[in-house]
Design a protein that fits this description.
Blueprint lengths: L17 H14 L4 E5 L15 H6 L7 E5 L3 E5 L4 H7 L6 E4 L5 H8 L5 E4 L6 H14 L2 E4 L4 H5 L12 E2 L2 H4 L3 H14 L4 E4 L2 H8 L1 E2 L12 E5 L5 E3 L7 H8 L3 E3 L4 H9 L4 E5 L5 H9 L3 E5 L2 H7 L3 H28 L7 H13 L6 E2 L4 E4 L23 E6 L1 E3 L2 E2 L2 E6 L5 H18 L2 E3 L4 H13 L10 E3 L8 E6 L12 E4 L2 E4 L3 E4 L2 E8 L8 E6 L17 H18 L5 H10 L6
Parallel strand pairs: 1-5, 3-4, 5-6, 8-13, 11-12, 13-14
Antiparallel strand pairs: 1-2, 2-3, 7-9, 8-10, 10-11, 15-18, 16-17, 17-20, 18-19, 21-28, 22-23, 24-27, 25-26, 27-28
């Protein structure tokens, strides 16, 4: 009936004898006179999604989560994951060969201090770690009396005989009708920031920054239209883009050459060395720049300036064209969501649908728009106990039937050329329990508190985060993820530097797009999350003594009325919900067929006490 084109449901590497891979790596380390080696889950640019050729951690250990690290020693080995992936790692990793340890508290460095011996030589690939990560490893080795060794080539690659080739996704031009600003204008703004940093040049080590600056997109990694590439922007003169020429059509090359020189990736190191040899101060993004770049600059006599990438903040503040595009993308997405939610309401209570059926149906409705380029991340479709796993990804093995009495949590997003979406809805299948309604309503009240927030210029996400949690805290419960992340414009669905979380220290600026997604998760029972995307906009407040901001909700999809305990809502919260549903009805209804219009009318009907 439906099918997914952009997602798979297979259990990765099932049946592969991973023990032989660990043995082969140990033999290679012994040949190189190394006692151990650090294997991060990263590529050269610390991307969230990495190409198959960069999945070294998954190839070696079987663990496929988006964050993790492994350490192989001649005696002992460990995989380090955060709290999101503890259950997943235990299922995917051979615990007879690997210990599963914390990635956060305590960090891997504590494990290294305890397991390294004096005189040990611990290897690492300087292209896969940031300089700050290397400094932490260096400290751990020093405490153990061991030596940290930068390798010239990765020992995993030496024994990974079937390693896929690096990706060669075609580069496309992101035209002015989507970007809203020319490359030349963006470069002028970047050079202003470079002047404030007192730098002679800036390395763009984040492919998102390259894509935004030069108005290009690509197809090198899943779910994010990235062209893997670097750029070097001097304070004077033309920048250089370092990208595999096989990705460039004649028109894409012509587009780039209007503002930049185009060179192969292998030319980056010589270009940096030549500039550094003049004593230049070269700015690097501390979050994405490989330690190898810092080493190149230092060794050639230059001064590396490590700090925040100035492009990240420029990119996060969307211009009027990007804002108009994302509004259009969300309206388009809303039609697909309404069709999907109506389908679930009609079919799920019969007990015949599965989690995979839900994923395939939603992607199919989005493809019917004719504008879908990809999903923005693998859809999280969790029913019953699977919904309580925050980053659950359904596989053929874990696939669960959606049954009456369940809650279905579906978190999904789309990539359209004019915008990126991300939305979560929790759906009652049959009659919800009183506990489900209580927890859902507490989550909803927190969601509404963020949506209605009014805050002065300079407010950070950390200052708003409590608003989303207050009603959960009153019941002695909480959720263990951030309340919201930044979202790109036909780029990453998880974009910095701003976020709504305890760690969100970047001030929110008008034009930023952030998610609003409080939740609640009862282990082995159910999960609840309500997520809309919000645009930071100006708020006129009578008598205000400073500029004020608020959120404009971009996402347009009904919130399940059956899960709301009306007695728990204040009059203002109820008014917000009814106004939101009236807006959904007005903007989405004209684009639906008759039966779906009737469903939407019922799903968005005003609630009254």
């Amino acid at each position: 009936m439906f099918e997914a084109h952009f997602q798979t449901f297979e259990d990765p590497e099932s049946g592969v004898a991973l023990g032989a891979r660990l043995s082969a790596v140990r033999e290679e380390l012994a040949r190189r006179k190394l006692t151990g080696f650090v294997v991060p889950r990263s590529d050269q640019q610390q991307n969230e999604y990495v190409a198959p050729s960069e999945e070294r951690l998954a190839w070696l250990t079987g663990f496929t989560g988006s964050a993790g690290l492994a350490v192989v020693l001649s005696q002992g080995a460990a995989v380090f994951v955060d709290g999101r992936y503890t259950l997943q790692a235990a299922k995917q990793v051979d615990t007879a060969a690997w210990a599963i340890e914390s990635l956060v508290e305590p960090p891997p460095e504590r494990w290294l201090e305890a397991h390294l011996q004096a005189g040990d030589r611990l290897g690492f690939d300087p292209w896969l770690h940031t300089s700050s990560a290397v400094e932490r490893l260096q400290s751990a080795c020093a405490k153990a009396g061991a030596e940290l060794v930068a390798v010239d080539s990765n020992p995993i690659d030496a024994v990974w005989s079937e390693r896929p080739a690096p990706p060669l996704g075609a580069v496309s031009i992101h035209g002015a009708e989507f970007s809203g600003e020319s490359e030349a204008a963006k470069l002028d703004r970047i050079r202003e920031e470079l002047g404030r940093l007192k730098g002679d040049a800036l390395v763009l080590s984040d492919s998102h920054a390259v894509a935004w600056t030069f108005n290009i997109r690509g197809a090198d990694v899943s779910h994010t239209p990235l062209p893997l590439s670097y750029a070097l922007v001097p304070k004077d003169g033309r920048p250089t883009i370092f990208i595999d020429a096989r990705k460039l059509s004649n028109s894409a090359r012509d587009h780039l050459e209007q503002t930049a020189e185009v060179a192969e990736p292998s030319a980056l190191a010589p270009a940096l060395q030549a500039m550094a040899a003049t004593g230049a101060a070269i700015a690097l993004d501390s979050a994405t720049a490989a330690d190898a770049l810092t080493r190149l600059i230092k060794n050639a006599g230059g001064k590396p300036l490590r700090g925040a990438d100035p492009v990240a903040l420029l990119k996060a503040v969307k211009n009027e064209v990007e804002i108009a595009g994302t509004r259009t993308a969300h309206q388009r997405d809303a039609v697909a969501l309404a069709r999907f939610l109506a389908f679930i309401d009609a079919e799920a209570p019969k007990g015949t649908l599965t989690e995979i059926d839900a994923v395939e149906a939603l992607e199919s409705f989005r493809r019917d728009t004719g504008a879908l380029k990809d999903v923005s991340f693998p859809t999280i479709s969790g029913t019953g106990p699977n919904g309580a796993i925050v980053h659950y990804r359904v596989t053929r093995k874990s696939n669960r039937r959606i049954q009456p009495g369940d809650l279905l949590l579906i978190d999904s997003g789309a990539q359209y050329r004019d915008g990126t979406t991300d939305v979560t809805r929790t759906i009652a299948i049959g009659e919800p329990t009183a506990e489900m309604r209580d927890r859902f309503t507490r989550v909803l009240r927190g969601h509404i508190a963020i949506a209605r927030a009014v805050f002065p210029d300079g407010t950070t996400g950390a200052q708003l985060d409590t608003l989303a949690r207050q009603f959960l805290w009153q019941a002695g419960i909480d959720f263990e993820h951030g309340t919201g992340h930044g979202v790109g414009s036909y780029l990453s669905v998880h974009e910095g530097p701003a976020r709504i979380s305890k760690l969100g220290t970047t001030p929110l600026k008008r034009g930023m797009i952030l998610s609003n997604e409080p939740g609640y998760y009862k282990t082995d029972a159910f999960g609840i999350r309500i997520e809309n995307l919000e645009l930071v906009v100006e708020k006129l407040v009578e008598g205000a003594e400073k500029p004020m901001n608020a959120f404009e909700t971009l996402t347009l999809a009904p919130i399940d009325r059956r899960l709301i305990d009306l007695d728990m809502l204040s009059q203002k919260e109820l008014a917000w919900l009814n106004a939101y549903h009236a807006r959904v009805r007005a903007e989405v209804r004209p684009h639906l067929d008759g039966p779906t219009q009737l469903w939407l009318d019922a799903a968005t009907a005003p609630l009254e006490r």
